[in-house]
Queue: 4 jobs
Job 1
Amino acid sequence: MDHQAVNRESLLDRLRPHVPWGLTTPREERGRAIILVTVGALLDVLGAARDRLGLDMLVDLTAWDRVPASPRFEVVYLLGRAGSADRLTVKVRADGDPPRLPTATGLYRAAAFAEREVYDMFGVLFDGHPDLRRILMPDDWEGHPLRRDYSLSEEPVEFHGHTPKVPSAIIPYFPPGSGSGSGGTTPPGAGAGGAE
Amino acid sequence: MSDAEVLTLNVGPQHPGTHGVLRVVVELEGEIIRRATPEIGYLHTGIEKEMEARTYLQNVTLVDRIEYLASYNEEMAFYQAVERLLGVEPPPRARAIRILMCELNRIGSHLMFLAAGTLDVNVTSVFMYAMTDRERYLDLSEMLSGQRMMPGYFRPGGVAQDLPDGFVAAARTFLDGLPGRLDEYERLLSDNLIWRERLEGVAPLSREDAIALGATGPVLRGSGVAHDCRKVLPYGGYDEYDFDVPVRAEGDAYARYLVRMEEMRQSRRIALQVLDRLPDGPIIVDDRKIALPPRAELARSMEAVIHQFKLVSEGIHPPAGDSYVATESPRGEKGYFIVSDGSNHPVRAHVRAPSFYNLQTLPAMVEGYPLSDLVVAIASMDIVLGDIDR
């Protein structure tokens, strides 16, 4: 397991001279080098990681909804280097309606599909993306399904007496540190019917 | 050339060459593809959303169905991330069994590539042989977990059951016969003029494009990059085994085929090492907050009954935080980005799907080449639509 941690200290240290360090929050957690950056510094950090550290692969790009925290969305860029153990996780938080971020497609072409998915699922707009359309959901879909306030339910079907089920009813949500036998509660940020 | 001479053609979503429901919009100038745009989402079932509403143990059922040709590898990726959050590591015997099953699954998955890939190029006899061989792997999976596909066999901190009687011998029989049969398939294909002409130099992907577009797995290694997460970012105990990472520099469909053929031999090598030095001992961690108590304890210990009840009715509570562990599925880097808030459900579970990123290389492979290369390109990428659409 420790092999994944090779070079991690030097990775953040090597990045330090090339980025506006005051606008970032670096940390190391469970063997990963993670750097939280401001929206304005995002492209500087990604560019420095690619050109100065040789992190030539955008391994993954995704997001999650931090509701009710603000800024609400955290977009996560996982950078790597082909043939090497170097890994850097870049996180950026976006708020607003709709939330906006600059696109990373100019630096990493692999971001094209992934940014479309984040837009589709969370409604984060990537300024400058060449083809920002929905990717997994139908083009005319309304809403962004992976937002926490988008409630999970079955699609209604035309059978008499059919009530759409909510999967979370099967094993309820137990918040952190809940006592035993509490029966579970509604997850924070879950929309109507989140745990009914 | 004017717009009137450009023909826009939909390939798929219902098309035997797309291995699922994939649509590719191609703009043709005569027979030459000027632009290819993959359109995906036809198999989107909202697995990532659904995972947020279920406990970690329930989620395995969903996880198995993502890259359904490599469910053991998928479970491996999922539990690596969960165990990193929990801070536990399975005992040596469980790690060895996991690696054994992942490598057998890799062989099974690559045999499926061989079967489907040859069928796409109309080499039907190899399709039959490879499927027969894959059946032998499926029998092993059934013997171990009761399931041919979607086994649900791994558990947080270990595996569900120990190897059944006769499994080691059965696995050896399968592995012992494998090289001879692989040689036979290779003789059938490498001496086959049609197969060579349809694959050599077709669907080329340069090293630079492969890296920039996020390709991983045999697609990346077929373009000359020695990048295998089992080697560069060892996880789950892979650093204890000897194996080579096959790489081809050509970057064409034939190179990707050769990489996979050699990977099957390397997987066999790892699996045989596991069988040779299979450690004794427990198959799951001894932490009652993570693993169910043994059945025998339930009759004697009230505490065991309570632990059993809590785990079944509520599940595990990984500490708050996020985790990602890179693993190597048969298609490339597979990893789960899991965010936990300390509750029994993940706040977010994202799958880094190798097929999703590999598919982005399709336009680079086919633009400027004849339409007939499209099917070969898709076959050589070995995509799983369940992995792309999730």
Job 2
Amino acid sequence: MSAELVTELKAGEREAPRALSLRVRFVRGLGPLVVLAGIVWAVVQPYRITLLHPHGQGFWWLLAEPPIYVVLVGLLFRFVVAPGLAEDLEE
Amino acid sequence: MMPRAEMVHWWFATGFLIIGLLLVSEAVVGTEVWGRRPWRRYLWPGTCFLLGVLMWPVMTFFTNSTIHMAAHGAWAQVLMLAGGVELARARGKLHSQYWRLCSSLALLVSGGALLVHEQQHWLFARSAFLHHALGWTLIVGAVFPLLHAFRPRSFVAATGFATTFLVTAVLLYCDRDTAQIFGYISRNAGYPHR
């Protein structure tokens, strides 16, 4: 077997675990990224969280908290979907 | 006492965000790994079907105009169609990859309904802008499930389909009934709020 071919094969072998590792990182990182997006949104537009100033707000305004929804979706993904998915990827 | 229209949009945005995240992870890990745990296969189609079911009360209670009501009815039907077909595929009741064309049809009908039922121009107010932007996003997004039906292993088709849901979620979260868009608002739109 030529040295060039061996080098290419070794590069291919290295590529597969690296790609796998990137995918695992993506799956594990997606939830926290969404949580971060929700937190940044809450900081930039704090008036969209009526729970911070609840006085005089009606029921629906207190229920509708979009940045908190984004954080909750990120947490749900991180703790319900991501662990099993990352585990299956690593197997 | 009814919730405001934009609140309903934010709730649906949350549903679309969930679907987008599930689809983007499926695209990245691949269908084989995604399907290794059977419950995972039902997640996004189930959420899509549920959003379709929840669209019916929206159609029933938010009756500002006939065309508005017809548009919400159309969204309810196509969300349930796309979700139902994908549930059947996940269950193994439907086998052909061409059933994915239902998702393409759903996006096309949804986009068309958004554009048709918005009577104002792009910069009339934020809600008008978002209806136009959402309509064209969904119409362009319809290309991805179409591509996916003919090339089931296409990464571009899978991520494009997922991105359509994520962009839709962002646009829906931006919605406010009477608000400026890029500093503009029509005099006829009413007083801006929050």
Job 3
Amino acid sequence: MTNVMNEGDITRALRRIAHEIIERNRGSENLVVLGIPTRGAFLSARVADLISQIEGKPIPRGTLDITMFRDDLRMRAPKPLLPTEIPAGGIENTDVILVDDVFFSGRTIRAALDALGELGRPNSVQLAVLIDRGHRELPIRADFVGKNIPTSREEIVKVHLAEIDGLDEVLIEGNA
Amino acid sequence: MKRHLLSINDLTYDDAVLILDTAAELAKISDAPVKKLPTLRGRTVVNLFFEDSTRTRISFEAAAKRLSADVINFSAKGSSLSKGESLKDTALTLQAMGADAVIIRHSASGAPARLADQQWMTGSVINAGDGTHEHPTQALLDAFTIRKHLRPENKDLTGVKVAIVGDILHSRVARSNVLLLTKLGAEITLVAPPTLLPVGVENWPAKVAFGLDAVVADSDVVMMLRIQRERMAELFFPSEREYSRQFGLNSDRLKKLKPTALVMHPGPMNRGLEISADSADSLQSVIVEQVTNGVSVRMAVLYLLLGGAPLAAVANIESNEKVGM
């Protein structure tokens, strides 16, 4: 088991992502930050807080559960649903920042794009992830990446966050 | 969870809470502009109704359609059943058409269990009311409604006092509710004339009272049951007026209720018999909301029974599968 990011690394990465989001969007006028539960939701709350601090105003935020949109539903037992909270203003004509912890096959993000489509038509959708571990199975890329970590398929990337796991860290398990 | 939902006894405590939690998330879909999820695309759900029903059939149909399943409605009237086809032959026909789930309502207690046990079909069987036996999805939507109003922060219904009033003897709703609500920690009092209580009621996990006045002030939920004229071959009480006096929820009793108490009824109501019009339409009544919640709860049941792989296949896949994201 290898520790590839500690608390300080994660905080710095998120801070940089927050600045990049503001730079890319020339401010935060039209932003809505949505996290994919479980850990993406905590990360998105942190990113939204950071953007609010920098811009000095609240940023609409929420969570987006993608369970019902997965393409592998038929291959495993049904999973419990996780909360979806869409900010009151909706996502119509906004710039949506999707936030997830680990970017791997891209299938989660494909499901998230489908889920977003049911909620409205955003002006744009951008993807922020803490870890990009490669091995994409779909033509999907991230706009903001905390850290690129080359992995083999056999390895497991674990993100631990203080909100749920007690401390911030990113670990790689397996035959590294 | 088991493959079929025939009785509340098929559910563990955790299963029941999982269904309620899933329904709570799915309820949000009903508020969304697009009330549709792709989850059951390509699956076929058959509504097999041997008895009349408005609410339950439409509710299951709406639930299945919101999950993108194909729905086939099949009612006994106007089908080969009126020509004398047996349950077995009907089941084999449905199997041949590739039904993934059959939602059955039948006047004979145990008909869904027979359909499930006989290996005539490979799909899931969901009991939508069988004779005087059970109606599990009604109990689930009642529990969902009670939890939403009285225990919004909790998993279960610990300490909620529920009075179930009326024709307990013939009521599949009462049977399922006693099983489910006690499983979730509620305290139940059955209120009925002795003639409308089943044999062995003293062994049920519920108290019994013989008049509504005794319990009305102390209850958190008053669940009125329909007087089922179609099952009343014998005289169970002297007259409808006398029943209404003793056991009906009228204006006077409505005033004695706690301000937070809920008035429930599984429908269809006999206004003026077991429930007065002003009680049914009062602010404390959640009778219309029960119907709305029914769709969410049935979506949850369909998702949890049909949404994943067949159970045998799951064990297979999970043992082979490497952990992915």
Job 4
Amino acid sequence: MEQQKEASTLGMWTFLLTEILFFGGLFMAYMLYRIWYHDAFAAASRTLDLRWGGLNTVVLIASSLTMALGVRSAQLNRRKPLLLWLLATVVLGSVFLGVKVIEYSDKFEHHHVPGPNFVWESHEAAPAGEHQLGGGGPVTEPGRAASESAGHAPAASNPQFQQWTQIYFSLYFTMTGLHALHMIVGIVLMSVIAWMAWMGRFDDHYYTPVEMSGLYWHFVDIVWIYLFPLLYLIDRS
Amino acid sequence: MEATPTLPALHYLNNGYGLKSWLLTKDHKRIAILYLISISVFFFLGGLMALLIRLELATPEADLLSSDTYNKAFTLHGVIMVFFFLIPSIPATLGNFFIPMMVGAKDLAFPRINLLSWYIYLVGGIFTFYALAAGGVDTGWTFYTPYSAAVSNTHVIATALGVFIAGFSSILTGLNFVVTIHRMRAPGMTWFRLPLFVWAHYATSLIQILGTPVIAITMLMVFVERAFGFGIFDPARGGDPVLFQHLFWFYSHPAVYIMILPALGVMSELIAAFSRKKVFGYSFVAFSSLAIAVFSFIVWAHHMFVAGISVYSAMVFSFLSFSVAIPSAVKVFNWTATLYKASISFETPMLYAYGFMGLFTFGGLTGLILATLGTDVHLHDTYFVVAHFHYIMVGGAIMGYLGGLHYWWPKMVGRMYNEFLSRIAAILVFVGFNLTFFPQFVLGYLGMPRRYHMYPPEFQVLNVLSSAGASVLGLGYVLPLLYLLYSLKKGAVAGPNPWGAAGLEWRTSSPPPTENFPITPRVTTEAYEFEPQMAPEFKLV
């Protein structure tokens, strides 16, 4: 039994390592384009609503707390609190997804979903971006050193500006979408664990599944802790 | 005299016969067999594509295949061979079967995840089959953007999803191995008593765990770009195709070592078993596996020297690529030193081992030519590159796989194959291989680019040689299929240890019982402790 628990723990941490690299590719792409198309990214990130993002951050951190309390209840063999904390985690996770739906539908209304219907109005660039020089990114030949072709057109009037904001939204949707998928998996997982707790499968000797799902949940939470500043906060003013 | 060996009464193969006993099995040995069957299907499918390619290239004109069909043939050849044969080949079959036995465990750490990985592999395979049946895909196995994301009108999405899904089966296999090697070793089986096969798989698993997620996310980005019109890599929309190449090779270069490292592990076992000697410099060979795994992650941009990366980073990557040669050479030198003054015998697995050493060394040295900046500009995207990586992938990985398969076949099924036929096959593979790929070095040096299905008439002689070699090679691959299948029923009973090899897997019956060992083994010796053997005439009694 002890060996099984050790094996599961090592397996779970290894799995989370693969998850870090999985998201890592996206973070890499985001970093590169953010440096190249700094102003476009800053302008695009200003269209996100800080209140919704902030609310979701609070909700997720709270859900991590309830999860941790759930694991603690399992360790102390308190079945009812365990069930309640797990359900609270499920509810908070669902709230997060609900807010995400509101945010996504807002993007649809403003035609900020990348693809053929994507529209970026030049006035959407908030004041700070208006008078700066265009993004340092390549205009004709992406992949060359950015400095070679540093654009000198005013940011918002550069015809490529729209394209660059589209890259921002492409990454925004891919990153938050992938995160939301992980949230959905997590909520299903938590529901199963809650059902198992309801059936009385866990006690203070055996609660490995609770602990492992907890690790997963905290990981998904931490991904958001990085996504939130990257997508919403940096260079906002 | 020893009594004629008999098959054990109860073993993992006769412990249940129904379809359900296979499809829902949690036994790592049965899952290995399931993998063996499925990768063989993919191998012969990919081989068929290769045969089509070589048939077309027998003449300078395009007569057999149209340009489009040719593009699809080499793409499917690459996709199938890389993602559905080479990557799972040794780890998912031989590794799956023997790692638990070598560490003295009953099974892998997560038997259900092991079965799950096989199903995930199958789902990925079905996507790829669908792409093939629906009309194929023509991007090359590299899926370079913007062609794959915005231009090609073939079935990129299905294929990319197939690769994406199959990647998770690879991750789960690696994860299972790492945890098994850490946590499931039998009492007394310390890290430095592990067979080198296990060390090689540990290094492989690290690459699978750290590299595969990156290709997965890259394929996902190509997918969203193609399916939803997101712009991430499309230069027309400000995206960067070179970023794709970086992400792609960040996995796909280490992936080369996912394919070759297990074969290097097999080699250490073969050399030790057939020279009846401890592997020289055990810890050097063990750590060179880890060193290769580490180096594999810092050399990827040598695929991109002419893609417009900066000169300075090209220099750094060129230098780092050279350094991979060090741990690889450590292995080859140590094997050679093991052979020195050893009592060598030349059974079939050893023939493959010898073939491997020559081809791997040759393939590795031509890799240095490609890692050199100046020569790479001349040789990039020519047949020289094709020949180089086939020397490693076919001459290395597949030779290692076949050598291992012949070595452990008696343990897996309890019966011997026909030794004469298998030696013929091993020689056919070696000769056919060299005839196929050596002329391609010359072709590449003369400037024939890869991935074209027409060429100037003066290249015909070399191309005909190559195509002729391919048919010999094909014969060398079909032959084992026949005599190995034949041996299942008719082969002589092997007994627990037909080779007189060391290692825990030979201490149990062949085929092994479901729980591998009747009692948990206790390990008291180093790896490759051979019992002193006297010549028959001196044997007492």
